[in-house]
Amino acid sequence: MAKKLSLLVLSILIGMLVVACGNQAKQEAGQAGNKGRIAVVISTLNNPWFVVLGETAVQEARDLGYQATLFDSQNDNAKETEHFENILAAGYDAILFNPTDADGSVSNVEKAGKAGVPTFCMDREINSDAAVSQILSDNYTGCVELGRYFVEQLNGEGEYVELLGLVGDNNTWNRSRGFHSVVDNYPDLKMVAQQTADFDRNTAMEVMESILQAHPDIDAVFCGNDAMAMGAYQALAAAGKADEIMVFGFDGAKDVVESIGAGKIVATGMQFPRLMAREAARMADQYLNGQRDFPEKIPVAVELVTQDNVSQYVAYGKKQ
Amino acid sequence: MSMEFLSKLIEKLRVLVKLRYLVYAVLTGIVLYHSVYFEPLDQHQLQQNQGELQPAEFARDFWENRLLKNLERAVSASKLIHLFKNDMATAVQQYGQTLGISSTHSYLVQGQGRITAVNNNGVEINIEAPPDSPEVFIETRDIFGNAVRDASGLLNIDDFRSTMEFNAISVEINKIIREEVVPEILQETEVGRSIRFVGAAEVNEDNPEISPLHIVPIQVQFGDRQIS
Lengths: 320, 228
Prior knowledge:
The complex is a heterodimer of chains A (about 325) and B (about 230).
Chain A: H1 2-32, E1 37-42, H2 48-63, E2 67-72, H3 77-90, E3 94-97, H4 106-114, E4 119-123, E5 133-137, H5 139-153, E6 158-164, H6 170-183, E7 189-196, H7 201-214, E8 220-223, H8 226-238, E9 246-248, H9 254-261, E10 267-270, H10 273-288, E11 297-300, E12 303-306, E13 313-314, E14 317-318
Parallel strand pairs in A: 1-2, 1-3, 3-4, 4-5, 5-11, 6-7, 6-8, 8-9
Antiparallel strand pairs in A: 10-12, 13-14
Chain B: H1 3-35, H2 41-49, H3 55-67, E1 75-76, H4 77-86, H5 88-95, E2 104-119, E3 122-127, E4 135-139, H6 147-151, H7 163-188, E5 194-204, E6 213-222
Helix pairs in contact in B: 3-7, 4-5
């Protein structure tokens, strides 16, 4: 009898141990992301702004219970296509996507859609309704506000230069057109040069150096992103003109926010990459849980950051 | 076989060879003709653009056939300003139009009052609505942004292929205002004169700038001149 009782107790104890181990395994599997797999494809990780976008998307996807992997397209549409092929072959469940080209990236998203893999665009749009939803900064309105401030700072007159971003990116043209929709109404403000520097800091520095040779007496530079603003500022500093020529950027990157705080760069437009990345990840989660009605486009407001209000902001966002 | 016969044969062969090249040339010409065609550039561009949005045309149609026919939904400026000061949440919820995720909202606003000041940037109006008689500023210079497009609540960004197309509509709407509404204001405006207006305002709920409330004009009517 005692032997049978001991066996019974032992069996119960072993059973409890097995159940406990099973729960532990389930918990660990949940933490490892067994809800599915999400791919985060970013145009380039050579720019800190996009690093924040990508890493936030990955972290949010993991926090929601997914395995998430970051892919760098290196600003190359062919590389991006290769990533999509690998992602679809590997059986990912959803894609959070920052396109390299508004037209060139459409076929990748269409392929994913045909394979039943939903794509959510972040920051940059594609000229198509193939994505489930696109969460984008309202670049145009942001640059209308920047344009107003630009006119105010120059008292409506002077000569300026514009450095454009990648010509295949709709953001380039939304920003430029928003800016010009204001500034072009002031005939005493003259644009003496407009050139692309591909959203790249080093390229912007070289382009600015070259433009300064032909136009040494400009009053301001408007740059389509903060990386180019830093490059332009570097070129101006090297030429001893950083105190004479105002520099305006767009993004809200760490180095520019600090530069504005130090009274160097004049202003930027603060985008919210963390908000866009988190929202895209949440939408992917909702989609994978059965929701299907999403707005095709979700603009996110951009806020003007100047030397007067920079204390309210931090890199890539606002102080809480 | 005589030499004469051979000569004639050779001559005939030479003619045939020349004919062969002629036939080749004719055949090549026919193939090329059907491979390449010419048409006037403007006709080609017209065909290309037929599937694409034409912002100027769209904006004109929107302005005349939708916006101007829906101005009765505009909220009274004095009521709106009172809400901005005392109950922003209600102002946003009941009268604001919001594009995406933003703290700035657009409003379709109407009112009437007397012109109290005029400058290069616009016209200041005192709305006849005691007790606080708020001020409104009708813009005549800074006609840009999306206030009119968004305040109407009649356009949906998802109906456009890209944000560039959607923003192009604002550019064209603002052009109509600058070319057709503002000149009348500049011509008729006079301190002391009564004015009735409908327009669009953008207000940030976190930092509302409402003293005065800046309005992009859509429609204005001038009344009597004040006899002093």
